[in-house]
Amino acid sequence: MTAGQDNTHPDAAGARQPPAAAGDAPPVRSLTDAGRKEGGLQAFQASLLARMEAASSEELQARRLAVTIGTAHCLIRLADAGEILPLSSLPAPVRVPLTQPWYLGLVNLRGNLVGIVDLAVLSGYEAQARERDSRVLVFSPALAPNCGLLLSSVLGLRHISEMTQISNNYDDENELIGVIGRYKDKAGTEWREIGLAALLKEAAFLHIGR
């Protein structure tokens, strides 16, 4: 070759390049391809979230929070329930002068005053024992976030579609105030559904003063 002569083959630009050696940077994807894939992923996630929310809504309609109030087995709609707290985790309720015995007093829950009610006493039964399993159910913010029910225990979730609805006899001496339905499960246990919204319309529940 003559010095200074261009030794680049005229077809070198179109020639096939050797495979990249190990450690070489991978080819860079175009922003168009990346954006297209990201958009598809976002659409998939949005669709999945919508399906999950729809399923959750259906579950909320059928599932109930299972609790005991004294010896009574009770059901409460999940949408009506706010927080569930161990009674032992809360300061002792501060009694309010000239209030009914079933109104146990006020507790400070992160700066919010919540009144605690013993529904058993309100309904004419013995006071619930305050034990290790005792809980306080705070009403949902949509109902009355400053109101709480004393519970003897929380049993988990129950599906009312797996129960048989029985006639609601409001003259039953074993009835609690606020009952909107009664069910019996496959084991024969009777459950009373407590409507928290209905409870808030009960005159006896609203008048805490003596």
Q: How far apart are the termini?
A: 115 Å
* Global outline: globular
Helix content estimate? 10-25%
Instruction: Return the string of H and E elements.
Output: HEEEEEHEEEEEEHH
Largest sheet properties: 6 strands, mixed
- Average pLDDT works out at 82
Mind telling me the CATH class? Mainly Beta
User: Beta fraction of the residues?
Assistant: 25-35%
CATH topology: OB fold (Dihydrolipoamide Acetyltransferase, E2P)
Q: How many domain regions? A: 1
CATH superfamily: CheA-289, Domain 4
What's the architecture in CATH terms? Beta Barrel
Number of helices: 4
- Rounded to an integer in angstroms, the radius of gyration calculated over CA atoms is 32 Å
Task: Tally the beta strands.
Answer: 11
Secondary-structure class: alpha+beta
Numbering strands along the chain, what is their spatial order in the largest sheet? 8-1-2-11-10-9
Low-confidence stretches: 1-15
Describe the protein.
- By secondary structure, the protein is of the alpha+beta class.
- The chain has one domain: OB fold (Dihydrolipoamide Acetyltransferase, E2P) (Beta Barrel).
- 21% of the residues lie in helices and 30% in strands.
- The chain is built from 4 helices and 11 strands; from the N terminus they run H-E-E-E-E-E-H-E-E-E-E-E-E-H-H.
- A 6-stranded mixed beta sheet has the order 8-1-2-11-10-9. A 5-stranded mixed beta sheet has the order 3-6-7-5-4, with no helix packed on it.
- Strand 6 and strand 7 form a beta hairpin.
- The longest helix has 32 residues.
- It is globular and about 65 Å long.
